Amino acid sequence: MIGAVALGATVLVLHSTKVEPPLLVATNTAAAATIAGATSTSSLDLSAYPDSTAITWRKSNDGVGPHEDWVSYGPTTNLQVPAHSVVTVTIKQYDTGEPIPNPFLAEVRGTVGGTMTVDGETVTKIDADHVGHTFTIHNFPSDKLDPLFVSVPLPAMPDEVEACSQSDCPNHVVTFQFVTLGPGDYAWNCEFPCGGNYANFGEAMSSYGYMSGTLHVV
Amino acid sequence: MSNDIEDRPIDDQRLTIGERLNTPAGQLVKKVTLVIVVMTVILVIFSVWWVNESMPVVASDTEQAVQDTMMVFAVASAPVMALVWGIGYYSLRHWRSPNKDLSLPPEDGPPIRSNARLTMTWVIVSGILTAFLLVWGLTELTATTTIPTTSSPLVVKVTGQQWLWSFAYDNDGGVGSPDLVLPIDRTIVFQVTSTDVIHSFWLPEMGVKVDANPGVMTTSITTPSKLGTFNVRCAELCGLNHSFMETTVTVVSADDFNKWITAHGGTPGQKVAGGTNG
Amino acid sequence: MAEAAVLSKPTDIPPGGGIMRRLNMVTGCVLGVILAIVAYKLGDYFWAANDQGTDQAVIAGEAGWVLGFLIGVGAFVAPINWLLGRDLTHDDEMFLAGKNQGIARYFRFTTDHKVVGVQYLVLAMVTFGVGGTLAMMIRTELATDDSEMFGNQIYNSLVGVHGIVMIVSTIIMVLGPWGNFIMPIMIGARDMAFPRLNALSFWTLFPAIPIFLSIAALRGIPTGWVAYAPLSDEAPPGMDAFAIAIVLFVISAGIGAVNIIVTGVTMRARGMNWHRAPIFVIGTIGTSFLGLVALPCFEVAMICTLLDRSMGAAFFVPDLGGSQWLYANLFWIMGHPEVYVIVIPGVIAILEIAPVFARKPLYSFRLAVVGLIALIALSILVWAHHMFVSGWAPTLGGPFMLTTELISIPTGLIFLVIIGTLWRGNIWMRLPMYFVYGFLWNFMIGGVTGIFLSDVPADNELHGALFVTAHFHYTLLGGAMIGAMGALAFWFPKMTGRMLNEKVGKVSFWTVMIGFNVTFMAMFYNGLAGMPRRVANYQPEYIPGNMISTAGAYVIMAGMLMFLYAIVSSWRSGDIAGPNPWHAKSLEWFVPSPPPLENFEVLPIVTGDPYGYGESHTKHTSHLGAMHRPHRSTKSKVEAVADPTPEVAAQDGDHA
Ligand SMILES: [Cu+2]
Ligand SMILES: [Cu+2]
């Protein structure tokens, strides 16, 4: 009995420590879907910040160590979009960058037309030596989940710019569209090593909710 | 009951085998052997069913070798398991003390300290079994790691990174892809590497697994033998999103493969100097 | 309990002795926390400017805790006295040995080997409880195919901490309690060779437990218990805590191992040559030797990891000239022998139990010794089979397949010894014997599935899949754990003076066995079907197997809690056991239960091995003075039943 209670208590405590960023629901847009298979259109606005001070839902540091200087997607990484929808994503990119280890990820993949726009200009890839982040959805298809692979590189702000996270700070605006299929939960994360420690894949990259999140297709 | 049995050494040299089996000890051996044989049969049936039922579809010659090995080893180990369990079962069934009151031990059993012949037989038989396993394993190992001289293998560069696989066909115009497309019946050479931590490139339906190490290229070969879409997984814990590090491998005909390469901006057979990933 | 009575009795240790007699676990914790805070602040002060500042501060803080705890618990009392030129008096020594301190002696730096044994037993049970709770959380998460319960990040840490806590727990599970408590009595000694080292070994391990738990507050470990580099270089500060706890554990195990080896080799009673030593003693010495050889590799690997993480050394960082295979080799050179450090104690406990309850001599003692030695020797030479798919030296596949498959020969010998002992025995189905049969069942499955994994092509399919997880749970839980539970059932009367509740024990045995086989058979199935290890999200085809597995795990938990209930309730109010409830023949059964301080009034002289069941000419001992009783004649059953056994009578007297 005591053991069962102890187990239950521990489960509850740990369950409650699970970081669950607030949900950002895509807004339905009026435009009619022009792509076969899609029945609606919607849009999502995200930002990629050089530090997480702009993230308002994060009230305190989880765990030991400074977190304000961790890079982060905002306003949240927990996203919800409709099924069978043409989703237009706009990402404001405030961060500087470096060469990406795997140039494969400097190319645009899985978007409508295989393209994106950077500050209004349509491109299929960016300079692999100046990548800030990527936005990559990469779940495996199964009998429960339709295949969805989207990977978009975000160009880096020049090093001379002092990177900051306020909305009036200098930024690149990246837009792209992708088409959702059936409902399901997909994982997405940044594939450009921008955290700390070895390979720059620690800290923000390895802590859920900073450079990684969930895309709920409903 | 054990005390019915005359304490006569079973390896009595003066008796023929037929006579020996008719001694009380010999009859005991007969009974136990029967239990073991029955159990062996059950175990063989069970393990063959189990392996067939649980293992994935065979999509390459390597996986065929793996599943053959599983089957052969399961059958070979059945008699050994049956021997140990059979005697265990027999001891519980026939040699258990009938005393209702368990507070005192039953009387002592026969003081058998050892039996040289049994020990010798046991060591020799387990030695032979081990030798068989080893020879079988080495044969299969050679068969699954040798590139047939007659073929022109397709080289695919596999890059693991946290938490994504990407594939480059550097010998076919440098096509890059987040999922794997392979032609059927052609030897594939995977050149596997990683940009960060250790991953493990795993094709469950093709029996291929090799770690992706940072700074090193490891290789593995296989020949797909079945059309269809199968799994690609990461089999080495690699951090936060390790469990999402999966994609698919699609096996298509040679023609379809060439079409796919062309459709993705490549040229079949055209080498890319230096070979980037994209 | 007997201790309770003693506690209220006035002590006959003269007062005085100063601060040394006031130190205990509480002062240890207090000083530990103080030093931890001071050291953390210092680390923070020195390294705050550095972007890796947290790692250094955490390492300093954890080290401060360990040092403070050891000072506070009194680990350095004797050396400090020696330094000050004060020798400990006889009274001091007696105080250290825990004379007349009742329960309190279990919370002090007490040197009596029986106290250390009980401390280890309780610690092993606590760590097993922690590991088990983590296992239940893992299984709860895996009940569904998504990571709804805890999420990937917490799940990865759960897997790693469960792994390491269970490894530590199973390593100390038999060697700690019975290697310390029973083994010295078995060989006719009054204590271990180095009683203070014995206490130091336990109290070095103790502060490692809070450090393991602190991993949770330090953002966890993403690596699993193998702590593979370079993922460990990327990990949050939880990794530092992990590494420090391992270093502590290895130091503790090393001290304990040296002590057991020296005790076993040099302190055997007169007449106990190697042929007359119980197989448990030989196995304990062998296992300790193996641990002493293997475990330091883990310590080295962890120290290198700490240096990599905190000072920018690059032992395992490939792009700075290090090598991830260096780590993998160091780890597995420890890792494979370590499995045998876990399994062999379970095996030798089973070998010790089987003859007593089959009422027959151990079948071929020599074969058992040869089997154990061969297992120990071969286990050092097989580590690369864990690296078959790593890409490191593919040409070594053949040789390591050879050495690995050779292990099946000594393993087979051990099985032959067990079934040879059962053969035509008169099986006495008391609780410990259940675990012998449980062991035969589980360990056979564990062994056979190991053969699949030893084959390189098959391993290419199975490595990193749940098949491996199921396999080593069959050996470590199904083999070693079941062996340890058997040992507990067997020696519980000796340690506590009371019988373990057999009714509850048997029910819990069946519950654990059934739950265990359901859990891990389902896991074999999913593993063969291609489900990887250590994933919180999996494809829907694996849902049925995982549901069965999770259900089975809850059954195991129920069984384990029942066993815990049996232990606790029997410890408090079980039937009085008497010195020799099993009518066994080794030396520990010829002293009272529980044995008094210093065990023997008159040291025994050994004249034969302890397995002479059914033999009138083999006697294990003579010259046991008042403790010596003739063993019961094998033929006079009626007489024995009619006549209340002398053991029970004498024992009642002891406890009146
Ligand atoms: Cu990023
Ligand atoms: Cu991976």
Could you please describe the fold and organization of this structure?
The complex is a heterotrimer of chains A (218), B (278) and C (656). Chain A is mainly β and 218 residues long. Chain A is built from 1 helix and 13 strands. Chain A has one helix spanning 2-17; strands at 23-25, 27-28, 40-49, 72-74, 78-81, 85-93, 116-118, 121-123, 131-139, 148-155, 172-179, 184-189, 212-217. In chain A, the strands form 2 sheets. In chain A, strands 2, 3, 4, 6, 7, 8 and 11 form a 7-stranded mixed sheet that branches. In chain A, strands 1-5-13-12-9-10 form a 6-stranded mixed sheet, with no helix packed on it. The N and C termini of chain A lie far apart (40 Å). With 278 residues, chain B is of the alpha+beta class. Chain B has helices spanning 17-22, 24-54, 61-94, 116-145, 254-263, and strands at 154-161, 164-169, 175-177, 180-183, 188-194, 199-203, 208-212, 218-222, 228-234, 247-252. In chain B, the strands form 2 sheets. Chain B has a 5-stranded mixed sheet with strand order 3-2-1-5-8, with no helix packed on it. In chain B, a hairpin with a 2-residue loop joins strand 1 (154-161) and strand 2. The longest helix of chain B is centred in the N-terminal third of the chain and has 34 residues, at 61-94. Chain C has 656 residues and is mainly α. Chain C has 2 domains: 19-87, no CATH class; 110-573, Cytochrome c oxidase-like, subunit I domain (Cytochrome C Oxidase, Chain A, Up-down Bundle), CATH 1.20.210.10. Chain C is 65% helix and 1% strand. Chain C has a two-stranded antiparallel sheet. Chain C starts with a helix and ends with a helix. Chains in contact: A-B, A-C, B-C. At the B-C interface, helix 2, helix 3, helix 4, strand 7 and strand 9 of B face helix 7, helix 13, helix 14, helix 15 and helix 16 of C. The complex binds copper (II) ion (CU) (2 copies). One copper (II) ion binds next to loops of chain A.
Q: Uncertain regions of chain A: pLDDT < 50 for 5+ in a row?
A: none
Strand order of the largest sheet of chain B: 3-2-1-5-8
List the helices and strands of chain B in order.
HHHHEEEEEEEEEEH
Structural class of chain A: mainly beta
> Beta-sheet strand percentage of chain A?
25-35%
Mean pLDDT of chain A: 83
Please name the fourth-level CATH homologous superfamily of chain A.
Cupredoxins -  blue copper proteins
Could you tell me the number of beta strands of chain B?
A: 10
C-alpha Rg of chain A, in Å?
18 Å
**What is the global morphology of chain A?**
globular
Distance linking N and C termini of chain A: 40 Å
User: Tell me about the biggest sheet of chain A?
Assistant: 7 strands, mixed
Most extensive chain-chain interface: B-C, 92 and 98 residues
What is the count of structural domains of chain B?
2
The percentage of residues in β strands of chain B lies in 15-25%
